[in-house]
Every structure is written in C-alpha cells, then in structure tokens.
C-alpha cells in the first residue's frame, strides 16, 4: 500500500504546519467560563484561516478537503499541540447530520456560524433513565402553534455548561422506543431551559444536565421528518464513534510524546509497553489509511471506537507508570481517557454491535 | 484489493476448499501435498515475472495467496520459495534469474538461509542466529542455521551471511540438512549445516528481503487468525447450553468482538507493511494478534479444543510457531525500540 502524499496534499500539509506553528498557544481549560471563550476565539482564528472545517464545502467555510487531507490536517493539528475543539459536537456530529438530512435553509443558516465558533453546540442525547438504552428516552416534544414544546430532562450533555445551542432526540409519538422520535435543535438560553453543570472527575464542568420546561422550538429547527429521528441520528452516529471524533493524529502525537518521555526517563521494565502503545497508534493510522476509500461507518465504526478508546487509556497509563507521581502534564489526559470507553456509546454496546452485526452472533 | 487480486483470492480459496487436507498432508514424507502445490503454482501464486516463466504476480499477490494458505493452515513451500524469488530478483542478475526462477515457477522448492537480522534495523547479526561466516576469497561457507523453512526439501538453496547473497548447491558433501521435528506440524523446518560449502556469490544481501519476508509472514498470520475467529464464531452459534446458542451470551460475544477488532487492525498492519518500520510493526502486531485469537479459540471452544481431532490446536501451534519464525515479537519490538520514531 502506498502511503505517500500527492503534491497538493503536501502543499496543504505545509500550509497547515506553518500556520499552526505561528498561532498555537496554550489555552485555559475549555470547561471553565473564561477558557470556553478562549477556545471560541481560537475557533474564530481557525475559521479566518479557513482551517476550522477543512472537509466541508467551500460555501460553508470549508475547503472540500478529501478524507486523506483531513487526516493529514488532524496529524498536523495534534502534532502541534493545538487546542481541543470546543466546536466538536457541532462540526463532527450535527454538521454531518445536516449535510445528510437537513434542508438548504438549515445548512446556510446554521453551518457558517458553527464553523466560526459563533454558535457552539452541545449534544443532548442521554437522559437519566436512557443511557446505553437510548431508545428508552422519555423527553417529549408536543405540537404547538408554529412549532414544538420540549419537556423533560437530558444529561451528560458535553459542553452544555457554556454552549449556545443543542441538538437531541425527543418523543413526538406515536409508537414506542425507536419509533416516534424526532431530531430537534434548541436554544440553551431559551425560556424554560435550566442548565445545571456537572463537575467531572477533573473538577471542571465538562458536561451538564438540561431541564426543559415547555421550551419552544420553531418548525424550522426540526431535522429530517417528524418521527424519523432515530434513523436521522443513527445514520451519522458512526461519525462520532469512528474517525472524525478521534483521528489517528491525536494518538500519533500522544505516542510521540510517550516515546520522548521514555527517552528522558528510560525504565527498561516499561520499554515494551511504550513500544506496544506506539505500535498501537501506528496500527490505528494504517487502519484508517487503509480504509480511505471505504471509511468505517455503521457497525465498522464500532471497531474503530473500541480500538482508539482503549489505546488512549493504554498510552496514558504507560506514561503515568513512567513518571510515577510527577505526571501533571499527562494526568488530565489520563483522567479524560477514562471516559473514552464510555462516551459515544459504551464499548460494551460497541461490542454488542460488532458481535451481532459484523459477526452475526445471535441476540 | 484489485479485481485481479480478488479473482486470485477466490481461485486459491476454492482450490484449497476442494483439495486441502491438512491432516493428510502432514502425514506425507515431505509434509505437504505435492499435487496441490503444483496446482497453486499453475494459478500463479509465486512472485515471478512472465519473462522468467512466472505468472507476473508480485509480492502483493503472493501475500493474498499466503493469507489464504494461512486460513486453512495448508502446508506448502510458498513462503520459502517466494522469499527466494524476491531475493533473486533483487540481485538484478539476469543470468541467475533466468536459470533459477523458471524452475521455482514450476514448483521446485527453494529456500533461503538468512540471518534473522534482529539486533539492529540495519545488518547486525542476531543473538540467536547461527553464525554463518564467509571465507570471501574461496567463497566457502561455514556455519549452522536452524529453523530453515523447507530446508531439507529445497533443491535450490540460497545463503546470506548478512553481507552477501550466495547460491549453494545443496547436494554437495559440505551441506548437511536435517528435518527438525516441530510442534507446529503444518510447518516444515530443518537445520542446515555448512562445512566449507562452496558457494557462488550472487550479489550484496539486501535487508529489504527481511522486510518482504516479515510482510509475507504477517499476511499468512492474518489469514490464520481470521479463520480461527470465523471457526470460533460458527461454533458458538451452534453449541447450545441453557437452551440457547452460547454465542448469544454477552460474556462470549464481547470476547469475540474484541478479537474482531484485533484481526481487522492486524490486517491493516499487514497490508501496509512496505518498509523496515512497517514490516517490523506488522510482524509484532500480527504475531500477537494471532496468539490472542488462537488462545481464545481454544477457550471459547471448551473441552473439544483440547482434543487431537479438533483443529484448534493446529491454529494454536501455528500461532506460536510463526510468532518465533524470523524473530519473535520481542526481538522486533526491541529493534523498533531502538529506531522509534
């Protein structure tokens, strides 16, 4: 397999690299109010350089970059130690859904401000009684004049503590479980919305509970058909589990840092684990490059999700074992890595998907 | 895969489905089915250009075929002969290629004695490798090499001392070859003793041949691991306990799902193995993936896997034998540790 890059991709790579070298600086945690605004400002600067959403069409602020170019962008982005993407829920989860199921009006109204970080999106899938079993969700949207009224409670909503808007599934009936759900967009500052931040294990509110008490949503913020929400949401769920959420660049960069760390703190007892983790990052890269013509989606994305989330934990655990207690630079990443096997559909759910839909094992 | 490679895969798979009988083959004096090998050569699984009597297949096609042979554990001298073909082509010597490659294309077994160049990514001899030394002036070779693929059967014998590549007539008195009994009955190995063996220098030894060999072996390992998992999945769909197929129990499902993740990523690593680093990555990753799948195959089958009649032990033994072949994962991991990133 030939992994060499064509000339236009090399040119793009050089542009990204030099722009990042000139602009990257450390920011405060995006899970604090000031840090969130710093990250929003960073998104604006990326957008001004047309680097915030490179894979999107040019009319919405992108560059029509190929998947290969996007992977290259991600490798450069993480190698440069650039900030986490506060707009991630919007650009990687909602946007693909709008491209697939939204209207022209929705795309032109929503995507440009998303690309600039002017509107930051939170996700509102889970509910207290509907986690892995998402189809048991109970929040409702009731028809009213000109739109819908939302009632219920969402939880584990990433970025919701400081974000502007959110997307999620609501029960519009008739039918049970996967039937009668509708994909809706709502304003987190609308009347009737109460956001209660939840502190994560690092002490900062990376997610929140959302209480909805007759929150009005106009008809124009329904994505796809009424009652077709499950299909609309699931058709792009692979984006979250698969490549776009966690590209190989993230792990290649972490593996590179781990190797550097080993050089400074060589502990022969840990050498094999360091190389194993590095091999894991290489294997993930080769796996995604190998899948360029046929990117993992649907059940195949579950394979990717299990792989990267466990690799992330292994990388960080190895770094911590190398450093012992003096590992502040890795500690936060390690704490965050613990959430990888849980968010975007727990790895247990992914294993069910792999077993039943790829291996054909009985339910 | 290209349409041609898919066609090749299907042709090899269907041939093996019809004619590969591993248990019968390992009972034969040479440990492989000669008729089947002749048919495989006819299909064109060896990486030999048409000008030298081959099918025009390349390394990629050979890897496709090796993955199929791996699936069924079919013993055949493909890995050994393919490595020799690549080593000969790498010399660029038309006379030598013209003399030896057509014979290999016709199925003559060929093998290479080479240092499993494990100490450095370049060319330092390995700790566990036989000391094959050269008396350059007389081109005579001395030394003993263990674990030589098809070493006692080969009619064409190449030897590398880590610096040069030589052709050695295996029939001469200075060459003594002994079949090595192996735990993995599906792999033919031998010890080759060279005592003042006269040798013709063909050219410099290229470490590319090591990388090609590692990539080829990785493809075979992936095929075997994939098949071991398929057999396990099939078994758990049919074995009923507590009134249900055991494959419906989540405790088992999740183990098989993890194995699927491993096999798919191992396949990517094997396919991408093109240079020193990626070939070493593939050898480590695919060896360990196959160890894991074969071990789980035994556990998920339960008692039946502990019987001689069941094939699980053949996969398990192949996993461990091929893990050691051309250097263990630890050896290549150490090599990577010195060269990373």
Present the secondary structure layout.
The complex is a heterodimer of chains A (about 375) and B (about 350).
Chain A: H1 7-23, H2 33-48, H3 67-79, H4 88-101, H5 104-115, E1 121-124, E2 140-144, E3 147-158, E4 165-171, E5 181-187, E6 193-198, E7 207-218, E8 222-223, H6 229-235, H7 237-241, H8 248-264, H9 271-290, H10 299-323, H11 328-337, H12 347-358
Parallel strand pairs in A: 1-4
Antiparallel strand pairs in A: 2-3, 3-7, 4-5, 5-8, 6-7
Helix pairs in contact in A: 1-3, 3-8, 4-5, 8-9, 8-10, 9-10, 10-11, 10-12
Chain B: H1 3-19, H2 22-27, H3 34-43, H4 59-72, H5 78-91, H6 94-105, E1 110-113, E2 133-135, E3 140-149, E4 156-160, E5 164-168, E6 175-180, E7 189-204, H7 208-238, E8 240-241, E9 244-245, H8 250-271, H9 276-301, H10 312-324, H11 329-339
Parallel strand pairs in B: 1-4
Antiparallel strand pairs in B: 2-3, 3-7, 4-5, 5-7, 6-7, 8-9
Helix pairs in contact in B: 1-3, 1-4, 4-7, 5-6, 5-7, 7-8, 7-9, 7-10, 8-9, 9-10, 9-11
- Please indicate the count of domains of chain A: 3
The N- and C-terminal alpha carbons of chain A lie at a distance of 37 Å
Report the CATH topology name of the largest domain in chain B. Answer: Butyryl-CoA Dehydrogenase, subunit A, domain 3
Biggest sheet of chain B, open or closed, and with what strands and sense? Answer: 7 strands, mixed
- The first-to-last residue Cα distance of chain B is 29 Å
| Parts with pLDDT < 50 across at least 5 consecutive residues of chain B | 117-131
Structural class of chain B: alpha+beta
CATH C-level category of the largest domain in chain A: Mainly Alpha
What is the fourth-level CATH superfamily of the largest domain in chain B? Butyryl-CoA Dehydrogenase, subunit A, domain 3
Question: How much is the radius of gyration of chain B in Å?
Answer: 20 Å
Strand content of chain B: 15-25%
Total discrete domains of chain B:
3
**Level-2 CATH architecture of the largest domain in chain B:** Up-down Bundle
Widest β-sheet, arrangement of strands of chain A: 1-4-5-8
**Mean of all residue-level pLDDT scores of chain A:** 91
Strand-residue proportion of chain A: 15-25%
The string of secondary-structure elements of chain A, in order, is HHHHHEEEEEEEEHHHHHHH
Tell me the helix content of chain B.
40-55%
């Amino acid at each position: 397999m030939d992994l060499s890059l064509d000339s236009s991709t090399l040119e793009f790579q050089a542009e990204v690299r030099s722009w990042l070298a000139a602009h990257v600086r450390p920011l405060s945690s995006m899970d604090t109010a000031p840090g969130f605004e710093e990250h929003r400002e960073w998104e604006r600067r990326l957008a001004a350089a047309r680097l915030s959403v490179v894979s999107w069409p040019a009319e919405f602020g992108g560059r029509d970059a190929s998947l290969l170019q996007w992977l290259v962008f991600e490798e450069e982005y993480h190698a440069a130690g650039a900030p986490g993407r506060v707009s991630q829920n919007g650009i990687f989860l909602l946007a693909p859904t709008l491209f697939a199921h939204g209207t022209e009006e929705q795309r032109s109204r929503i995507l440009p401000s998303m690309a600039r970080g002017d509107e930051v999106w939170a996700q509102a899938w889970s509910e207290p009684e509907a986690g892995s079993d998402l189809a048991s969700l109970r929040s409702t949207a009731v028809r009213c004049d000109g739109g819908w009224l939302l009632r219920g409670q969402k939880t584990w909503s990433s970025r919701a503590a400081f974000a502007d808007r959110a997307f999620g599934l609501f029960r519009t009936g008739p039918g049970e479980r996967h039937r009668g759900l509708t994909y809706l967009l709502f304003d987190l500052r609308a009347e009737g919305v109460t956001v209660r931040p939840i502190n994560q294990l690092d002490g900062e509110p990376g997610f929140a509970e959302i209480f909805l008490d007759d929150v009005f949503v106009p008809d124009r913020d329904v994505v796809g058909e009424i009652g077709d929400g499950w299909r609309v949401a699931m058709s792009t769920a692979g984006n979250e589990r698969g490549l776009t959420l966690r590209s190989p660049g993230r792990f290649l960069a972490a593996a590179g840092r781990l190797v550097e760390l080993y050089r400074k703190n060589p502990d022969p007892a840990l050498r094999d684990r360091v190389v194993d983790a590095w091999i894991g990052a290489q294997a993930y890269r080769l796996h995604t490059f190998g899948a360029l013509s046929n990117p993992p989606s649907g059940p195949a994305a579950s394979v990717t999700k299990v792989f990267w989330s466990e690799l992330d934990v292994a990388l960080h655990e190895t770094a911590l074992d190398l450093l012992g207690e003096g590992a502040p630079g890795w500690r936060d990443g390690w704490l965050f890595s613990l959430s990888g096997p849980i968010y975007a559909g727990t790895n247990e759910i992914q294993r069910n998907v792999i077993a039943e839909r790829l291996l054909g094992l009985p339910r | 895969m290209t349409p041609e490679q898919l066609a090749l895969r299907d042709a090899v798979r269907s041939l093996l489905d019809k004619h590969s009988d591993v248990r019968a083959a390992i009972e034969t004096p040479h440990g492989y089915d000669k008729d089947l090998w002749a048919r495989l050569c006819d299909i064109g699984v060896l990486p030999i250009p048409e000008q030298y009597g081959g099918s025009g297949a390349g390394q990629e096609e050979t890897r496709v075929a090796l993955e199929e042979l791996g699936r069924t554990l079919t013993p055949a001298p493909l890995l050994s002969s393919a490595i020799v073909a690549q080593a000969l082509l790498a010399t660029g010597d038309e006379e030598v290629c013209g003399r030896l490659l057509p014979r290999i294309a016709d199925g003559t077994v060929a093998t290479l004695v080479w240092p499993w160049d494990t100490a450095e990514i370049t060319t330092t001899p390995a700790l566990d490798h036989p000391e094959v030394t050269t008396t350059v002036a007389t081109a005579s070779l001395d030394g003993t090499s263990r674990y030589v693929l098809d070493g006692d059967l080969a009619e064409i014998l190449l030897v590398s001392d880590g610096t040069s590549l030589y052709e050695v007539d295996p029939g001469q008195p200075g060459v003594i070859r002994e079949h090595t009994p192996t735990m993995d009955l599906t792999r033919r190995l031998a010890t080759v003793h060279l005592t003042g063996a006269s040798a013709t220098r063909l050219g410099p030894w290229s470490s590319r041949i090591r990388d090609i060999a590692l990539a080829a072996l990785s493809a075979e390992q992936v095929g075997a691991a994939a098949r071991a998992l398929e057999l396990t999945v099939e078994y758990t769909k049919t074995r009923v306990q507590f009134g249900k197929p055991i494959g419906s129990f989540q405790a088992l499902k999740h183990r098989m799902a993890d194995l699927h993740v491993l096999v798919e990523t191992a396949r990517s690593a094997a396919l991408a193995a093109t240079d020193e680093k990626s070939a070493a990555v593939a050898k480590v990753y695919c060896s360990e993936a196959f160890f894991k799948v074969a071990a789980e195959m035994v556990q998920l089958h339960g008692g039946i896997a502990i019987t001689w009649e069941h094939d699980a032990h053949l996969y398990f033994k192949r996993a461990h034998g091929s893990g050691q072949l051309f250097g263990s994962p630890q050896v290549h991991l150490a090599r990577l540790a010195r060269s990373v990133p």
